[in-house]
Specification:
Blueprint: H1 21-25, H2 40-44, E1 76-87, E2 92-103, E3 119-129, E4 134-143, E5 149-152, E6 157-160, E7 163-169, E8 172-182, E9 187-195, E10 200-201, E11 207-209, E12 217-234, E13 237-252, E14 260-270, E15 275-283, E16 293-297, E17 303-306, E18 312-320, E19 327-336, E20 341-347, E21 353-354, E22 360-369, E23 373-379
Antiparallel strand pairs: 1-2, 1-13, 2-3, 3-4, 5-6, 6-7, 7-8, 8-9, 9-12, 10-12, 11-12, 12-13, 14-15, 14-23, 15-16, 16-17, 18-19, 19-20, 20-22, 21-22, 22-23
């Protein structure tokens, strides 16, 4: 949900570029502004100029590979990769690489220079060393100009500086190479991802309502079961790794209604071959928003949409961030009665809060109970 609309993640959306648009528009000098959780919903909710952008107001067929690329006439968009991998020595790691695009204006500006652009880009990259209990992350911003950041098709390539997702086949998204490096954090990934199930559509054929207004919605599809093989670095450990990954794709102009505070988003890969994504949108009064939803994907890639009454999410244990004071539920009961799922989802490392412009929790989790597995959890608005 990955984002200020459940994706995923997925944060695990979370497109936060709206809070730094002024920073990018006026030169990007110094540090980007700090944003609080309270203004996150405002930045992702309706605004006065929404009608000047394209809106997601109903289902339309997706067209590939074009829809793997950018949709610049919408305000926000993201490519959200998360995964769990194991080194040859048995050491486990989690990773996240998210690339966000945000439109600064509904139309292209008069081109005064090669730096001129109406697109801002942001990236989040993180690696968690499960055994060491360490989580490291970095945030970047860039203009969509001079080749500094952008998205293309044939082949699909999405990049921000040297962070990139690049397809090996000009007509298909997969196989795809995912690369990111942050030397001062001692983390890097160079992974080859391949698809096992095909894409699935959230909501009504990819039209994912997040609020009461028809336009408070996203176009949302996902690849819920990817293989991940390649290299990962954490400090002086350079490891050959293999495991699984997940990709969430969303774009929209407005997502949230007034009174929606945050969300909890689960992307779970079960050992019986099923994949489960469920998210609850929390309202200011503590209630669960009726637009909370989910998706259950069987081993063959067939999917079933879950409504808010089809699953239960109950916090079991909390962790408080020493940096922000935010208190996050890091162990949950996840139940889908009609699918015979009664799961306990637990953070593999409690301290996986993202040290980004707007703080949120995004990290690797384990699954036990009626089935076992791994996954990723995103929590915002705490």
């Amino acid at each position: 949900m990955r984002r200020f609309e459940p994706t995923l993640m997925a944060l695990g959306g979370l497109l936060l570029a709206a809070v730094v648009i002024g920073w990018l528009r006026f030169g990007g000098l110094g540090d980007p502004p700090v944003a609080s959780p309270e203004n996150l919903a405002e930045s992702m909710g309706p605004s006065a100029d929404d009608d000047e952008y394209a809106r997601v107001t109903g289902p339309v067929p997706l067209v590939f590979p074009e829809d793997h690329g950018a949709h610049p006439d919408y305000r926000t968009e993201w490519w959200y990769f998360v995964g769990n991998v194991t080194a040859e020595d048995g050491r486990d790691y989690g990773f996240q690489l998210t690339l966000f695009r945000s439109a600064l204006a509904p139309e292209d500006p008069d081109k005064a220079s090669d730096w001129t652009t109406r697109q801002a880009w942001m990236g989040h990259f993180a690696v968690t060393d499960i055994e060491a209990g360490e989580h490291r992350a970095r945030e970047r911003y860039q203009r969509g100009a001079l080749g500094l950041a952008g998205a293309t098709v044939r082949p699909v390539r999405i990049w921000l500086d040297d962070w990139e997702a690049l397809s090996e086949d000009p007509e298909h998204l997969f196989p795809l190479r995912l690369r990111a490096s942050e030397p001062d954090q001692g983390i890097a990934i160079d992974l080859r991802l391949d698809d096992l199930k095909g894409h699935v559509l959230h909501g009504d054929q990819g039209y994912s309502r997040k609020g009461a207004e028809p336009g408070n919605a996203s176009r949302y599809y996902a690849f819920t079961r990817l293989t991940a093989d390649g290299e990962l670095r954490f400090d002086d450990r350079n490891a050959e790794v293999s495991g699984s990954a997940w990709l969430d794709r969303e774009w929209s102009t407005s997502a949230l209604d007034a009174g929606q505070q945050g969300w909890d988003w689960f992307a779970l890969q079960l050992d019986d071959g099923r994949d489960l994504v469920v998210y609850r949108i929390r309202r200011d009064d503590g209630s669960v928003d009726p637009h909370s939803k989910g998706l259950l994907v069987d081993p063959d890639g067939n999917s079933e949409v879950l409504g808010v009454d089809d699953f239960n999410l109950t916090p079991q244990r909390h962790w408080q961030s020493p940096q922000t004071g935010s208190r996050y539920p890091v162990e949950w009961s996840v139940q889908v009665p009609d699918a015979d799922l009664d799961l306990t989802v637990t953070a593999r490392v409690d301290a996986q809060e993202m040290p980004t412009t707007v703080r949120y929790w995004e990290g690797s989790v384990s699954v036990r109970g009626s089935d076992t597995g791994v996954g990723y959890l995103e929590m915002t608005g705490y």
